[in-house]
Design goal:
The structure is a single chain. Helix content is about 20%, strand content about 40%. The protein is of the alpha+beta class. The protein has a domain at about 80-145: Helix Hairpins. The strands form four sheets. A six-stranded antiparallel beta barrel has the order 2-9-12-11-10-13. The chain has a four-stranded antiparallel β-sheet with strand order 6-5-3-8, with no helix packed on it. The protein has a three-stranded mixed β-sheet with strand order 19-1-20, with no helix packed on it. Strand 10 and strand 11 (about 230-245) form a beta hairpin. Helix 2 (about 80-110) packs antiparallel against helix 3. The radius of gyration is 39 Å and the shape is elongated.
């Protein structure tokens, strides 16, 4: 009988064990966890300028074309204004006369003040200074007949050819002219457009819920659909400190070094901004965290049973979450919550198999 009883006890025990829930557990991991956001961005040169003429005349020469690299101060085009040169010549002649008149009256007055009134000397001096100012003005206007590069960069547009009438002005056109053809003859004519692309500037518009985290020096990573497999690292350089009333977004700029000129003005990019980083954080899969009216919690396995543990959650990127308080990092936590399991109910505990490349991504990409 003892033998029979002993033989019957093992199947009964196995059946009871099989009736328990099986729970997969994992130990919290430690590492850096990042909250980030991905936004569309527009690339432009660090400096971009459309060059207009200051004086009206005919284009005499233009020495560059689209795609040419230029240096700061390089003469790019020369405008011919014959009437300006004639006015300058007359002004210089008048200046010479006024100068001689003033010098002679000054010498006479110094030799004998009775011969010339001091008032006449002062009037002559005033006419001389007025003539000199006129010459200086015309010389300044004459210098504008040469269009020079304000900075080193690449020519991105050429809108006129030699012989074209260039009208003085500088009012920006309502839309960018077609860079594949000359600019229409009506209105103010731009001559060239220039961009500095050794360093690129990226415009992104941060939404209202992210602007509080934007700061100078914040890391940013750019990816472009046209350049698969490549990424470009930069930092937030400046932001407007003001939200647009229409979109409730804040203009944010990222500067990128572009020594190989792989990036061009007008490109579209996806920009990932690192809003927040916590180092040596305790991390759990997002599925391991439950929520109740009392707050967030996890189920900790101890002695073959599950114990409910209240926790405080920090950064949650949708795959993993930071545990700010409630765990030491040595516990075994259920990877998924089963509503049918009652706390303190016996369960079968199974360790999750760790596989490379299965660690949750630490960077969240928020569209």
């Amino acid at each position: 009988m003892l033998a029979a009883v002993s033989g019957c006890s093992h199947p009964h025990s196995d059946a009871k064990s099989e009736s328990r829930h099986t729970v997969v557990v994992v130990r919290p991991q430690r590492g850096d966890i990042v909250r980030s956001i991905t936004l569309p961005g527009d690339l432009v040169g660090l400096y971009q300028s459309t060059l207009y003429a200051k004086v009206t005349g005919y284009l005499k020469t233009i020495s560059v074309d689209k795609g040419d690299w230029v240096k700061e101060g390089q003469v790019l085009a020369v405008i011919e204004v014959p009437e300006l040169q004639e006015r300058l010549a007359r002004s210089r002649a008048d200046l010479e006369v006024q100068h001689l008149t003033y010098q002679r009256l000054e010498q006479v007055w110094k030799s004998d003040p009775r011969l010339v009134a001091r008032q006449d000397v002062d009037i002559a001096q005033g006419k001389y200074l007025e003539a000199k100012a006129g010459v200086d003005e015309l010389e300044a206007m004459a210098s504008y007949t040469r269009i020079v590069a304000p900075f080193a960069g690449v020519v991105t547009g050429r809108f006129v050819d030699p012989g074209a009438l260039i009208k003085a002005g500088g009012e920006q056109a309502s839309s960018a002219p077609d860079q594949g053809s000359t600019h229409p003859s009506g209105g103010t004519s731009p001559v060239l457009s220039l961009a500095m692309i050794d360093t690129m500037r990226t415009y992104v518009y941060a939404p209202q819920d992210a602007v509080g985290s934007i700061r100078r020096g914040m890391p940013a990573k750019l990816t472009l659909q046209d350049l698969p497999g490549r990424s470009f690292d930069g930092v937030v350089t400046r932001y407007s400190n003001s939200l647009d009333l229409g979109t409730r977004t804040m203009l944010t700029e990222i500067d990128l070094k572009n020594p190989r000129h792989d990036l061009y003005p007008g490109m579209y990019a996806n920009v990932t901004l690192e809003l927040e980083r916590h180092r040596d954080a305790i991390e759990l899969p997002e599925s391991a965290i439950g929520e109740s009216p009392d707050g967030k919690y996890v189920m900790v396995a101890e002695g073959g049973k599950l114990r409910r543990q209240e926790v405080t959650v920090g950064i949650n990127n949708g795959k993993s979450a930071e545990i700010v308080s409630g765990l030491s990092g040595t516990e075994e936590v259920a990877t998924a919550l089963d509503p049918s399991i009652v706390p303190d109910e016996p369960v079968n505990v199974v360790q999750q198999k760790s596989q490379p490349d299965e660690r949750p991504n630490m960077i969240a990409a928020t569209p």
